[in-house]
Amino acid sequence: MTLSHTLSKQRLHDLLVSAQAQGADAADVVYASGISLNYRVRNQRVEHVERAEGGEIGLRVFLGKKQVVVSSGDTSEEALKQLIARAMEMVRAVPEDPFCGLASPEQQVDFISEVESCDENPDDDAVLLARATEGEAAAMSIPGVSGSEGADASYGRGHSLWMNTNGFYGENKDSMRSLFVSVLATSKGEMERDYDATQAVFAQDLKSPSLVGRLAGERAVKRLGGKRVPSCKLPVIFDPRESGSLLGHLASAINGASLARGVSFLKEQMGKSLFNDSMQVWDDPFRSRGMRSRSFDAEGIATRKRRIIEDGILASWILDLRTARQLGLETTGHAVRSPSSIPHPSVSNFYLDPGSISPKDLLGSVKKGIYVTELIGDGVSMTTGDYSRGAVGYMIENGELTFPINEITIAGNLIDMFAHMVACDDLVFQYGIDAPTLMVEEMTIAGD
Predict the structure, then answer these.
(1) Among 340, 406, 389, 299, which Cα is nearest to 83's?
(2) Which end of the chain is more exposed for a tag (fewer CB within 10 A), N or C?
């Protein structure tokens, strides 16, 4: 399965030259092509097949302190001429943006390192069908599982080209495959669902379909008999399926777009202690087989591994050129963009270092608490840090999981939660934003 859509470096160069000839002061272009394939199986029958292939080109032009982006899926010569004309017409009409502009030649990367972000061996239809079928069959074989919500096996591959009028040119390739299995369990008129999933850049890094299915089935059965608990304050342990979401809130709060608007609860926290002094959070764009690995950002800036939380202290923001200029700082090389958007900052492979305690030992240390396996809703204020989400999981009593719980809400404030957090030693890279099992020492539980 190869990509049939591509553009040459020369055609991108010609497009930029034409844009300047028609009045643009500067310009950049990104061309992204890709292919995706998805098989959905339900009750061992193919329920849905989807395949998509194509490419999109995005041209950004500057006129003084004005900028616009125009994009098209048509890359014929006539379409590209119209793209330039449309961009030049639009840029004259938009308001000025004092912070827009390309990176200077001195800021741009002069050597592009290779990153292992693409598996050159594709997954075909037969592989995906077999993966989904095996995963669902394993889930349905678990006693107590009564029905399938489906098994989805997907594969995707992309190739992007980047160029600007300040001399930058770069290419990036990526691939991704995944399997998601969701099933139902029934007992005495009660029904519960649960799932398991795996995703990776390289096929050999996926969990086996039978393991994914078995875990999905066992989790669904285990949730039967769920209860509510009285409102109280207890320690809360987050399963790795959900612990990364806490790190995601950190990533959002240190994002330059939020900081420039003044709407981050961490806007005054640079250089201050947020976590205990054993905590280290990294952003690593060079991680081998990382889901967000890249050696340059969307503005041609070199990326590098950064320690975001150093010994518990906030040490870096996540910035692109525009937000850095707004804040009077330097870009951190975190710009991303699609062909139809202007650049904005975003993390790459973002993770919390594992701690020194095992999940078993951490669980054993809790006399009474909550173990969360799934979060519901999005009640998080990035302005204040107030946190309130629905949760499903298990009661912890005397160091052991006892009965399933549901229909509860866990609440706190992220600054307090970060400061009173314990990390286990079970970090696994699987989502792009990853954390090991985490415990927040006390949260408010709203139940009965």
Answers:
(1) 340
(2) C
What pLDDT, in 10s, does the model give residues 51-68? 999 999 999 999 999 999
Strands of 45-63's sheet in order across: 66-72, 45-63, 26-42, 145-164, 169-187, 190-200
Fold of 9-219: PmbA/TldD fold (3.30.2290)
- The answer, yes or no, to whether residue 2 has pLDDT greater than 60, is no
Report how far residue 394's alpha carbon sits from residue 161's, in angstroms, rounded to the nearest whole number: 48
Ranges of H-type helices in 5-57: 9-21
- Residue ranges of the chain that CATH labels 3.30.2290.10: 9-219
Q: pLDDT tens for residues 113-126?
A: 889 999 999 999 99
Q: 291: which residues sit within 8 A by CB, 6+ positions away?
A: 176, 199, 200, 201, 349, 429, 431, 432
Give the pLDDT band of residue 5 (cuts 50, 70, 90): low
Secondary structure letter of residue 14 according to DSSP = H
What whole-number distance in Å separates Cα of residue 408 and Cα of residue 427? 27
User: Quick one: 336 exposed, middle or buried, by C-beta within 10 A (0-12, 13-18, 19+)?
Assistant: middle
pTM over 0.85: yes
